[in-house]
Amino acid sequence: MGRDVFYITTPIYYPNDVPHIGHAYNAVATDFIARYHRLRGERVFHLTGTDEHGLKLQRAAEAAGMDPKTWVDEMEPRWREVWARLDIANDDYIRTTEPRHEAAVQQILQAVYDNGREDIYIGHYEGLYCVACEAYYTEDDLVRGNCPIHDRPVELLREENYFFRLSAYADRLLEYYEGTPSAIEPEVRRNEVLSLIQGGLQDFSISRTSFRWGVPLPWDPRHVCYVWFDALTNYITAAGYGSDPERFARLWPADIHLIGKDILRFHAVYWPAMLMAAGVEPPSQVWAHGYILVGGEKMSKTKLTGIHPFQLVDHFGVDSYRYYFMREIQFGQDGSFSWESMVDRHNADLANGLGNLASRVLAMLGSYFEGAVPEPTVEGAAADLPEVAAGAATRFQEHMEAVGLTPALGAVWDIVSRANRYLVEKEPWALAKDEERRGEVASILYAAAETLRILAVLISPIMPSAAGRLWEQLGMGDPLAAQRLPKAAGWGQLAPGTKTVKGESLFPRLDS
Ligand code: ME8
Predict the structure, then answer these.
(1) Contact by Cβ (8 Å): 137, 127
(2) Whose CA is nearest to atom 8 of ligand 1?
(3) Quick one: which atom of ligand 1 is closest to the CA of 235?
(4) Distances, alpha carbon 345 to alpha carbons 20, 339, 350, 469, in Å
(5) pLDDT-derived band at 89, boundaries 50, 70, 90
(6) Which atom of ligand 1 sits closest to the CA of residue 259?
(7) Which one-letter DSSP state was computed for residue 349?
(8) Is this structure's pTM higher than 0.85?
């Protein structure tokens, strides 16, 4: 059996603190893509989890007066509760402290160690180290003497380490990326990786003897595996590497590793080289998004600018939260979060846009047709709505296939705007005063309700909860989860006679 599952991953997050809206940005984007692929009728495997080993975690535990395992056991649920509240529908959740993962890490290490090319060798390492990144830097990398990512002082460390011979993989990596241009997106990140490889690659250290909080190397248990061999391997652990070859053949290589650009080097240089060394195919695509900025800087825990997602969800609701970040910030670029822009987005696109469209149409169906969807009898009454909806649904799918998350939502909102304008042009509320024009009113409201049905389907990957409520208000019998694109976006599937209910407003207006 070959590959028959769409496999998408988030990075595994460090649970040394609670999530902030930067982590949630990555989680929501991954979930949006995964839900879209389910809507297309594909089998999907969406993986997320926590990265629980390493010095950073050990130190956080020490600071809290706990042993590392007790500490991560306590922190990890605080990540899961956020994903649950944000409607993240992951199919698996991996913790690097699980036995299945420790077994897979030992397997890949042993496979590389035994590959006959001495890709793992012992040496000494001395370097400038950022504990927050869990990475060494050269003098040139530093900004004002500090870590370029965390803007914190680095430490001089020296120890006996095993190394991975990354330097031997430059040519193979270049060859691979030249032959597979889609393997790194967006293009600016691809170019960044290519010039990094062309600039020459240095071997990196993969083990430590200075502490115990990690997976022991199978051939030399005095050492524990350090960071990237442990963390990156999660993606193949969960796919059945070394434990379930049949499952592994169906899932691997992953379709998309969706990451932030801070960990591009590890995913697009270290990881494929590690896999090549172990005789495993590299992932199909690494997609690196930008940063959520607050006050012009990357939101981070160490800088105390972290905003917890619940601080926003409590006020805006989960649907508005998910929508805002995907729509407001051009996916792939950095973007600033601000409370004001979130209120504006909510009111313009959701309360006045989609919410208003739904409440007007459902209210008129209630007043004029006792809630029942009327039969459309007047030809041409739908104007260009069917074409607008069909065109936008096609563009939505094209953008989603290319991970163009922001323009994909733009396409859906073209339908919302057109439908609201359509009602203003047709004025069914005025026509309803004239009994002779009832057929026209019926046909206009049919077209508007059918547009809402299509909108409910198209917004379901980004706003699953609001889509479900709209679907119910429209009185649809088949479950929303059973709808499939492109078929469900086809015009004319709303059956006359369907009993709608006005229900609660989808997106109440918020004060600024
Ligand atoms: O790096 N804007 O974990 P992590 C956008 N454990 N995305 C952000 C962000 C921001 N301000 N801050 C964080 C690690 N992220 C490793 C990964 S993977 C095998 C191991 C996102 O908790 C971004 O995607 O520090 C980042 O890469 C991810 O959170 C994980 O951050």
Answers:
(1) yes
(2) 22
(3) 19
(4) 21, 10, 7, 20
(5) very high
(6) 24
(7) I
(8) yes
